[in-house]
Amino acid sequence: MKKIVWILCIQFLAIAGYCQSSTAAGPLPSAAQLKWQDNNFYLFVHFGPNTFTDLEWGKGSEKEEVFNPTALDCRQWCRIAKAAGAKGIILTAKHHDGFCLWPSAYSKHTVAQSNWRNGKGDVLKELSRACKEAGLSFGVYLSPWDRNHPAYGTPEYNDVFVNMMKEVVSAYGPFFEFWWDGANGEGPNGKKQVYDWHRFESTMRSIAPNTILFSDIGPDIRWVGNESGFAGKTNWNLLDTAGFTRGAGAPPADTLNRGNVNGANWIPAECDVSIRPGWFYHASEDAKVKTPGTLFEIYLKSVGRGANFLLNVPADRRGLISAYDSAALMGFAALRTKSFHSSLLEGGDASIQLGAKNVKPELTDGKGNGWISFGKDYKNEFLDIRFNKITELNCIRLKEPLQNGQRVASFTIELLNGNKLLSSLEQTTIGHQRILTFPTQAVTRIRIKITNARADPLISGIAAFKIDSDLVEK
């Protein structure tokens, strides 16, 4: 009886076009990496002594009393993040100057030595609580470079950094992401540190196995190779790390930007960029905050190319996100809502077929609960989308079910009116999602062809939109 049920199940899946098994396309992401990539937009908050000295890289010799926010309100940060549609916040708990935004037992350069709140303040505690209340993920940036700590440049400093990691994880975790900066300059004694990255990584794996670890070469996610927020038009979630190190020994920027088609490790890209010219707050930059339209363009070139978007929004000297930054974020959120609120493929206005098979609604409902396989003979197949009437559009979004690996290497989208070809868009990778924009076309039909793949291609989501023509990627 069980055998009969199994055979019927296989036959049903084949008829429906959905299949849970297919040619292997490893390496594959972990559950934590899949969850991280679904949180595709979140905020970075640079905050510390540099906020009050107008520096970007502090010297480490700043007096602790320099840090003195007059109205710190981490709940305000979270309200703005939520309204902007961000899924979390990562805080610079310790930048290169070595100042700790929590009362660390392993440093004398912390909030405990400042006059702020009579030395009883703790920014990490306040933000951790605020994120939990708001339902936001919380992450920390901890720079191993320390221009203040007297042990920096000696083997003992690696003990200090390990203890700091343990301290913040136990007191303020769990974290969705832990950010390691690869910078390695001189400390107060003029020496550079030999970082024990193997120990740092094994420590985090032991105390926070579900926390995603960021650096130039992962192990879980990678820097995208620039601070403009742009992933490569070709963007593989795969990367070869053998022979490379964090910081100066990282892979070339163009490799970080694109990944490796046959990379040995699943290490997707994160795009970090600041909403201002600098990373820390400077009043002189209030008029230089990126516009909502610019932020939307970065979204298309990061999330729209299969990466995650980490947008820095620094807190000001009050300890608040400024009205200038907040206004830009609200405008950015409004553009995304207006642009992607409703797909033209929903509501029964279009039919989709792969060969002779009708595509199920799960492919167009935006939930990613199913996928369709093009099969091994994919070069002779295409998705045929037919509208009930002439439809104007200028944006198409595709997704792959990454739990099965990243497969599509190149594809073509053909826009037609009847059988007349209006234009053809030739593209490379898809990944978590690929958002393509183009001049507005009036179509009755779309054909999607996979032209090259690492294994039989799988598509888990299709959507089409007509967005404001000013937002179309240039």
Written description of the protein model:
The structure is a single chain. With 474 residues, this protein is an alpha/beta fold. The protein has 10 helices and 19 strands. It has an 8-stranded parallel barrel, surrounded by 4 helices. Strands 11, 12, 14, 15, 16, 17 and 19 form a 7-stranded antiparallel beta sheet that branches. Strand 15 (408-417) and strand 16 (420-427) form a beta hairpin. The longest helix is centred in the middle third of the chain and has 18 residues, at 155-172. The model is unreliable at 1-22 (pLDDT under 50).
List its salient traits.
alpha/beta, 19 strands, 474 residues, eight-stranded parallel barrel, disordered N terminus
Task: Give a summary of the structure in a few sentences.
The protein is an alpha/beta fold and 474 residues long.
Ends distance: 59 Å
* Fraction of residues in β-strands: 15-25%
Mean pLDDT: 93
* Helix/strand order: HHEHHEHEHEHEEEHEEHEHEEEEEEEEE
Give the number of helices: 10
Poorly predicted runs: 1-22
State the strand order across the main sheet.
1-2-3-4-5-6-9-10
Number of strands: 19
Query: Tell me, what's the shape?
Result: globular
Approximately how much helix is present in the residues? 10-25%
Task: From the alpha carbons, calculate the radius of gyration and give it in angstroms.
Answer: 24 Å
How would you sum up the major sheet?
Answer: 8 strands, parallel, barrel
Structural class: alpha/beta
Protein topology:
Layout: H1 2-16, H2 31-38, E1 41-45, H3 49-53, H4 74-83, E2 88-94, H5 123-134, E3 137-142, H6 155-172, E4 177-179, H7 197-207, E5 212-215, E6 221-223, E7 238-239, H8 253-258, E8 265-266, E9 269-274, H9 292-302, E10 308-312, H10 323-340, E11 350-354, E12 357-358, E13 372-373, E14 383-399, E15 408-417, E16 420-427, E17 434-453, E18 458-459, E19 461-465
